[in-house]
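A favour, since you know our structure tokens better than I do. Just paste the record in under my message, thanks.
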Amino acid sequence: PVSELGIGAEVVELHAHACGCATRLLARSAQGLFCMWDVRSSSLTAVVDAGHSALSRFGATLSVCWLSPDKFRMASGHERGDVLVWTAPPAGSRLGAGGPPALASCTRVVACDATPVRQLLPLTAGCVLALGGGPTEEPMERLTAVHLPADRVMGGLERSDSGDSDGSRPSRLSGDSGSAGPPPLPPQRLPWLGEVRSLAPVTPRGEASPSSVLQLLDEGHVALQQLPGSSP
């Protein structure tokens, strides 16, 4: 039942991810909350609910996705234009024992006032394709390859918008004492092809990462767009 997922509302997005012997579900509600559910133990392992400070800082969660094939890392897109990365409690943890997911990093498509991030599509463990998150004055929603910084356990949730005006630097959170590695590449915005309804990655045979993205556009049009840095 939906009530057992721990978010007490209609589930509008659901993803499964297997790592080792564990399988977890990532569920998002219509109210912008999300949780992680362990399938094997039928238990809730982590939840970001209305009382979580991240939601008051960054707004409701509008999209979620798993990131790493070898661990339980996930990303969330928010109504104020932020992309957050979370690390889940260890496999087998129950809510209260493993604790809530830890906020590892925060990135923005642009440093100015931004539109909501409505969809996220994982490309690699360190990069997601985001729909939205652009300047509020921009009339159309564009796709952007967002390169994520190295994970750090964040000491606070206060956002600093001191990055470049074009969003070429990720925002930093209070408690972040410095980078754990080289800075990520700046966001790479894709040309606008039309109003996006849904996305699907296209991965060549024998490759680990997608080289292009298939887009269902408004009025039933379909477009195939090459991703930055990939070969045709």
